[in-house]
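[SOLVED] Predicted holo structure with 2-keto 3 deoxy 6 phospho gluconate

Edit: marking solved, answer below. Original request kept for reference. I posted the sequence and ligand SMILES and asked for the 3D complex as structure tokens.
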Amino acid sequence: MPDAMLDILKRAPVVPVLVIENADDAVPLARALVAGGLPALEVTLRTSAALDSIRRITADVPEALVGVGTIMKPADLDTAQEAGARFAVSPGATDALLGAARASGMPFLPGVATASEVMRGLEAGLTVFKAFPAAAIGGPATVAAFGGPFPEARFCPTGGIRSNTAADYLRLPNVVAIGGTWLAPKEKVSAGDWQGIEDLARSAAGLAEHLG
Ligand SMILES: O=C(O)C(=O)C[C@H](O)[C@H](O)COP(=O)(O)O
């Protein structure tokens, strides 16, 4: 079965995870990341500015492919879709969420940390999973080990990845993309250091060039 989420991640193998406190930052932040070569952006629902941020980026930065993160329950999918999000990411995967994502038609990236969770995702017809929290569950060695029993599964490790460990994940054959907040550090966002963020994005995009 084709997995629309896999297609998105193949086009954008490094996904900045954004925690936007002030919706006024959303558009310049998205422009900087896209200019640095990272078009897929995950705006987490962790702040009250998230939905407004998704709306603003969708309206003003058409080159960005905006998704929503921290999806916890089926209703979050509806709200995110209404705001214009084009894919959805969750730290985990409940049966309710897997069912709602399928019904909504929204490309969905559920979080997995164990073999049983990968098996439930495969049973639900998905082929790509967020390995979360990637560093804490054992890092590249754990993701690589999932490749034994699950050769068909692909992963987007997220959680604890930094610029000096990104390449260790990207070189794994079953890793299609990686994600994380290190691309939009809080200090740089609050200082409006969009050039600094563009530079971080460019060096991360460079790490993934071989995947293209
Ligand atoms: O909020 C969500 O939807 C999450 O699932 C968690 C984030 O993906 C990680 O917190 C990113 O981890 P760091 O890059 O280590 O900051």
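OP edit: Strands lie at 14-18, 40-44, 65-69, 87-89, 108-109, 111-112, 128-131, 154-155, 178-180. Thanks to everyone who chimed in.
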